[in-house]
Amino acid sequence: MPVYNPPLRDMQFVMHEVLKVGDEYKAMPRHAEVDAETVNAILEEGGKFASEVAFPLNISGDEEGCTLNRETHEVTPPKGFKEAYAKYVEGGWPALSCDPDYGGQGLPITVNQCIYEMLNSANQAWTMYPGLSHGAYEALHEHGTDAQKKMYLPKLVSGEWTGTMCLTEAHCGTDLGLLRTKAEPQADGTYKLTGNKIFISAGEHDMAQNIVHLVLARLPDAPQGSKGISLFAVPKFNVQADGSLGSRNPIYCGGLEHKMGIHGNATAQIVLDGAVGTLVGQPNKGLPAMFVMMNAARLGVGNQSLGLTEVAFQNALAYAKDRIQMRSLSGVKAKDKPADPIIVHPDVRKMLLTAKAYAEGGRALNLYCGLLIDRELHHPDEKVRKDSAELVALLTPIVKAFLTDNGHIATNACMQVFGGHGYIREWGMEQFVRDNRINMIYEGTNTIQSLDLLGRKVLGNNGATLKKFGKLVAQLVEEEGVNEKMAEFINPVAYLGDQMTKFTTELGFKGFQDPDEVGAAAVDYLRVAGHLVFGYFWARMAQVALREIAAGNTDPFYQAKLQTARFYFAKLFPETAMLMRTARGGARVLMDTDEALA
Amino acid sequence: MPVYNPPLRDMQFVMHEVLKVGDEYKAMPRHAEVDAETVNAILEEGGKFASEVAFPLNISGDEEGCTLNRETHEVTPPKGFKEAYAKYVEGGWPALSCDPDYGGQGLPITVNQCIYEMLNSANQAWTMYPGLSHGAYEALHEHGTDAQKKMYLPKLVSGEWTGTMCLTEAHCGTDLGLLRTKAEPQADGTYKLTGNKIFISAGEHDMAQNIVHLVLARLPDAPQGSKGISLFAVPKFNVQADGSLGSRNPIYCGGLEHKMGIHGNATAQIVLDGAVGTLVGQPNKGLPAMFVMMNAARLGVGNQSLGLTEVAFQNALAYAKDRIQMRSLSGVKAKDKPADPIIVHPDVRKMLLTAKAYAEGGRALNLYCGLLIDRELHHPDEKVRKDSAELVALLTPIVKAFLTDNGHIATNACMQVFGGHGYIREWGMEQFVRDNRINMIYEGTNTIQSLDLLGRKVLGNNGATLKKFGKLVAQLVEEEGVNEKMAEFINPVAYLGDQMTKFTTELGFKGFQDPDEVGAAAVDYLRVAGHLVFGYFWARMAQVALREIAAGNTDPFYQAKLQTARFYFAKLFPETAMLMRTARGGARVLMDTDEALA
């Protein structure tokens, strides 16, 4: 059976030693009182919930899956999921980073990100139930009417009700402009919605009293395409004036998808058969409103893969130390045993360190983004808020695509460490691979993320936002440029930064002449950008480790951090050279081929 | 539901136009009569069997899996598997490349490889039943006593009986020297075997009257480690002097593994409880005897991934032409539709072409290896036989590891083309990914393959065999060096060949000082070698295409072949630069890390 130990030490390292969140929080009136002790106590409690409540249900949830009663349209999640959710609500976890005006605890997003990383390690399928709810909370908090906020937010914050986002239809996922679900205005100001949605995560279950579906649909007079889409709040049970639950609204689960993984999550086909809803935000402005939720969700998906990368690493490491097989190439290591533990083999270490470097780099980036959102929401200086918002917008597609692709690489590498046993379900490793696989797809495929990054976020403003990140790199170079010990970490990042500037300009020119050149280079470009960002954070983490070691700190944690940084720059970072070369391979070799690809 | 169309045209291209097997066969007395017409007729029939009989059982077999009756220890494969196997036997397919002395049809291995590729595309889990049998046939044909050959071979050739290989035990897979199954000699010259095996593919089923298990075990006086292992033939039902089936031998299925994929294959835990067996080959020489089977199996595993790469490509291509979503970046393409088919998007094409280039390159290499084995077995010139044997030994770990890793990349890319639908079982794409995943593990993990290549096959003889492959490259360069049209294909291969020579020498020196340097570089090295070999075959395929086009042939097949070659060299081949760089990153960044990886 797999193990999971909350990586509290490493989270605290990133939070307190790298990002120095304490100093950051002090600048924000809302969070000024949040000190390290508070943060650590919450992480510890969250870690307990993740490892003791959510994690034991991970394999059983995968095996059992969800069950739809076709007569009642009710869905039963796997055994234990409902009870675990009740404990989660009881513990006040849904409220953690929510607005105190609606019962929230108003804690920083950064802290919430740590809790979610641990929940994702423990049980991605289960975590999606509260995860989707939180997204619905954010969309309603930002775009809901006062009446909607009053009706829904306290219940979402307490966790008594959950939420979903209903976007996809069978014929459209990426291209929401094609969607067909209709919303007919009623005399009382509500709307009746009719249509069919698919792939609705946490779409139906018995874990909460009510479910608030946020549904994209078209008004009768809506323009064609993506500018004619509106957003509606459609509850499972209609809510009466006094807040109590009324009649069952005809929005129900017509079927459950049979999926490669995340079996414990009810991925529902949702039928709307004249379901009553209310408009969220402006008519025909549903897509921008939904994007509030989508952006949070995209960061959340990156966090899911971060969680899976960490838990896969922990298990592969434990196995590699325990499993004996063959002797070390450089001579017997475990003389008392008939073979050496497989961690003596260089390629086993390479697989382990790949996962470790991606987990720790991902954690730094993920929490940095959390901090940017905390600044965006609560920093008193408007310029800081604006800059932070821009930077997190730039980094969001990188978090989504780079972390999930890395999760794919890492979970597969960790599964490979187990040899044949990795293919066997009971060990839990192949589930991490299967669960991670959706993260590369949903909330916008990784190709879509790359087009968002290169087309919109970078070339869309002539690289202005990218330059802001470049300034952070330049600042680090300035700080540490003369420090010989930092050269091995700083030089590759500085060099790649320079290359990327040229590379970006080059793609801008090519894309101007032929937009397909952007499409052909985007995926490679995003991965290069991902390494630039990871390289920056690995250099910063090495900086902290070097300083601690220089100051006489003998905690082996810092030596390990340095070694992992060295591994990262020697074995993973060089991918960037290839990526720029294949991107420069251009669009013609793709587009000149006959469409038949005969 | 997925589709599968046997790629007869491309197989015929490789067989007749690239490898010119007709000329090759003429030089071999056994195959002198095998002309193109015969080959094509067999491929067509084999394709029909694969697409019409095996393929329709692929998804249902995955859904249903195998069932063990714990009282009788009998295993029932998924519905239809038994009937399909009966048809396979009736069609004489098991006998195709077997020795006519035992009822075989004596056809070339090359032809058999084509049939297996199609069966693997259609249904890898099903194909493993006859596949393992064929391996048992080969081991007994090479190492069996006359009595064993007489008793088992005709039944394996006809397909009435099937075979397995029983190597792995719970505590040892890679390191077979640790195995514990015991064989006690009996007065009548037989042995009684006791022990527990795991991961036995096609280990128990009701598709054949009898199953011949080839089992590795230890004699009482055997030396420790891998030099104390012997090979035994242990039938499910004891065979009487007249060839009829006698009593049930106590070798039975104690449990079925729950796996990520290949659910239709019975992966059995096999219990030997004093089962009667006979010795195959010499005492304590079981491993070398088993390696006959293992080498064939390794090529077979590469062929499995080739099959999955091809079928995944076909389905992703069909979907990409059919699914409409968004408009082309370079302007509307399908004016009559609300969106363009997704094949207009550059990255979708990149994913498709990746699978296509890996499928077609893999097919060329796979069939070339088949041809080398045909030469090794039947060429009248001893030197040709010896050279061919050496070359196929060199290429075997490349076929196993490179084709299966490419299969991982390709099946995942093709699944990604489907977006969210790729994650849904009914579309079949995620099954290709899951089924392929075992190919990177079994028959020696891909890390083991890389150590076999670099440590044993390359450095073990100071690169002598590698130089033989280098001569083929040099010959092509000589032939086409002045042909301007070939420069784009020849130059990168010639350049990489030069680099590899230096790279190999360098690794030899480093490995001499520290063997872990070999272990650290081996996986990267194998992938570079894989691209050298693929580059060579892509250049040869481009050569044929250019000649046909120059001769006025307007079949679009040749233009597509050229375009795919260009794609391969622009987008996939450049990986080699990164791989040499990461390999040069060395062993220290791996081995200096504390074992705790704290």
From TrEMBL, chains A, B:
Keyword Iron: no
Pfam families per UniProt: Acyl-CoA_dh_1 (PF00441), Acyl-CoA_dh_C (PF12806), Acyl-CoA_dh_M (PF02770), Acyl-CoA_dh_N (PF02771)
Acyl-CoA oxidase/dehydrogenase middle domain span: 165-273
Residue ranges of domain Acyl-CoA dehydrogenase/oxidase N-terminal in the record: 82-160
Gene source species: Caenimonas terrae
Needed co-factor(s): FAD
Family membership: Belongs to the acyl-CoA dehydrogenase family.
SUPFAM superfamilies reported in the protein's UniProt record: Acyl-CoA dehydrogenase C-terminal domain-like, Acyl-CoA dehydrogenase NM domain-like
Keywords recorded for this protein, A-Z: FAD, Flavoprotein, Oxidoreductase
Acyl-CoA dehydrogenase/oxidase C-terminal domain mapped to chain residues: 284-451
Domain called Acetyl-CoA dehydrogenase-like C-terminal: residue spans: 473-593
Protein name: Acyl-CoA dehydrogenase C-terminal domain-containing protein
